[in-house]
Fold this sequence. Notes:
By secondary structure, chain A is of the alpha+beta class. Chain A contains 18 helices and 27 strands. Chain B is built from 13 helices and two strands.
Amino acid sequence: MKENRENIFQKLGRWVTRMFMGPAYEDRMYRKSKKAEEKKDGENKPDDSELIVSPGRQVLQRFFERKFAVISVGVVLIMFCVVFIGPLFMPKYYDAYTETTQKDLPPTMSFMKVPKELQNDIKMIDNYGSFTVGLSNSGKVYVWGITRIGATGLDVKHIPEEVQNAKIEWVSAGIDHIIAIDENGKFYGWGSNQFGQYAVTEKVLSNPNLAPVPEEVLDGVDPDQIQKVTSGYQASAILMQDGTLYIWGNKQAYSNIDSFIGKTNMEDVDFTLNYVVGLTKDRNSVFCGVRGLYNTARAAIGDKGTKMTEFLNGRKIESVTATTKSICCLLDDGSVALVGDFPTDTTQVPTLAEGEYYTEIQGGAYHFTACTNLGHVYSWGGDHFYQAEAPTGKITNAAKVYTGSFQSYAVDENDQLLGKWGLKGYLFGTDDAGADIASRVVAGGRVTMTVGAIAVIIEILIGVTIGLISGYAGGWVDILLMRIAEVFYSIPLYPFMLILSSLLAQASLTQNQRLLMIMVILGVLGWPGFAYITRAQILVARESEYVTAAQAMGVKEGRIAFKHILPNIISVILVNIVLSFAASMQTETSLSFLGFGVMYPQPSWGNMLTRASNATAAINFWWQWLFTSIILVFTAVCINTIGDTIRDVMDPKSSNDK
Amino acid sequence: MGRYIVKRLVYMIFVFILLTFLLFLLYQLMPANRAYTDAKTELAGLKNSLSAAEQDTKFQELYLKYQRRYGTDTNNKMILYLRWLGLYPFYDGKCNGIFQGNFGFSYQHNAPVVKVVGPAIRNSMLIGLISEICVLGVTIPLGIKCAVKKNSRFDRGTQVFTLIGFSTPSFIIYILFIVFFCSILGWFPVSGMKTPGSTATGWANAKDVLHHVALPCICLTFGSLASIMRITRASMIDALSLDCIRTARAKGLREKVVIYSHAWRNALVPLVSIFVGGFFGIISGAMIMETMFGFKGMGLLYLNAVRTADYDLIMFMQVIYTFIGLFSNLVSDLCYGLVDPRVRISK
């Protein structure tokens, strides 16, 4: 030991030792080095480094001297904790989660980063997909969130020059475009125009599936006469105070857009994911141009719906607000009527205090946020990202609320931001189904590690037993068992696995049964390695004195094999367990990568990388494979380091070389 | 020696038959009923106005005809297997199986399986041989150097790389290479054997093929570099700690002679099976690499056959795989005798 001071790794090693072996052992083990220092100082105390330690302890001691091995143990333990305990902390996670508006988003935490200049001066905030657009009272437009539109190379952050110079009065964001209207009524748009979102071109006019922007809008509308500007997936609408509606966009995204074109008696309009919904001047039903679609209403999520006319019972609808699949109607008595479907994971509509009523309701992708006449804010509806859990008690002077798809913002009467809640972003981005990769990495790690571990356990159980019997019994039993092992060894692994898992695909198994079968197949095909190693060790051990002694004492054969010999060769098996664990994980990931192991939607570290086999996708959506790969490789490196180190420290020859 | 080989060959045939029988039983589970689909197709092709009952009898007739032609007119698995081998006569009294040279017919490719597999084996071998030679050319000198200079800075650096390489599933290495060389640098094409539609011949053609094959080769080489490197180093270290090496050094032999003649010979013994297995594995193709590059080798052929349930092709390829596995075991056992004079296998 060259240094006097313990470095961090030695300290860590000592702590782990204490954790497993108790303070007494730690003291004894680490006193050695202290003694050596004291001896250097000239004191002539007896040196107990010469004391005989049992082989097991010596191995352990030498293991903890290697800092990389100790780090690896720590990393693997942390990894285990994360993948096995981590899922307990993500109760809202489920495998088959998909979200159309959140596909292929790069890692970010900027969804709620309202620019500083805007925070005290909010005129409006709008969002439909991954980016949010904000407008200040001075007419300046701000954009935040993920502003790059897929792989198109467009970036809505590049606000056109003319928009920057103009004083903007209205602004609205769709899934991939932004529209704005300035004080003179001039209409602007930027982002993607593939479906005629903001500009009329030859291509747009020639496509019967697109509704072009009305000429009145292009000519300019009086901004003071506008009641509402809103955008949906690839469509937008402008509603005038006199009830005239201008609506345009992709008819394939909104099939009922035709029923709205040219309407002049509208009170309100909004977009769900698939339908345009509106409110006509008679204000007693949700208008969507499809008979009976949004015709039942309820007062609370989960209630049995009643017919809209019965539910209203003479009351009138003030406004409609739409999320992906549901609509919330604000009634003239300040209560709400819920229409449509809600996801399973929701928070309930709050019950208001006496005399309190809703003044404004805004809808996100699944949740609604409302403020009341007392300045309180409430959220309800879809709660997958905790977006429907409003800080109700903390905010008492809210005048307006705005929502993003999974965010909410509360603003007071001076247009100052009071609070924001909901989804901050995705640490590792999202995959092609719109699911959060970080949580899939945790869930996939659990699958991959479980498969690896169980496969190795099956390998050990079969392999060690057969190796023991074969090595100890000898004779024709040995020959027979080794021939069987050879047959299994000759089976080409990948082709055979492919066949078996394609057979599994035809048998209608549940996800977990299929997983179990994969583990069993991996284990059953992998055992000969263990059998060979065990047998070779047994052949050596069988000749040792302690076995002869046991035989002389009349111990039963089986007992000798399992109780006397097995503990003596366990160290060699241990090394192979660790290395096989890493190898099984690799086999599983490779199979899943090819599409024959764990199948979507169940995540595994292998099938999460499938998309990267396409070179263009691999570079465009780098986050979809990079993080998972790094974690996978890092885990495997640590496991292999542990295996290597155990082998090194248990090899009596290696100590001389050091 | 001769007797040993004969003994091994007899045993090999026994295992081969056992394995193919097991695989055959397994494939019987696959839901592919050719007689049924063919009968349906022919029935649909008949332009007539038969009543439902007549159609049914006609179908039964056709179905039986096809079943007899394909030899599936029995449920006895043993008979089915023997028919496949060509040892049991079909309905028409003739044997038509592997022993008669009929390996089957690929329905996806609409050609006899032998014709389908031929080019695939050629492609796989072309790329496999190049990369295998590269792997051995790199790992053997490097492994020996690391073992001789154990725990030197060079060895430690190499060790870190091999540990990472060994722990990385090969497909991640391929992804990295594709992203780096194809997408970022743009040096190599992403897939295929040659430029689509190219009619170049001679030198230009060779250059084109080489350009396409280069990256798969590099990937394949890097994919298997680490594990072979580790094994080479480990067995060389073991060999260097043998008593005979100490004796050789004590005799005053030159270090080169000690390492390359004494130690390397001993280190080769455990390596032989891996090297031999590697060379035979070339024929089986590299499934993941071929899938990622769209390289028409054995691996991709097999994968597609499994995906489309091309029954005869799968069975034939599985036979090839099994045969290669068993044969390479035999060859590596024989090679033990060549590299290790102590092993006298004829005894």
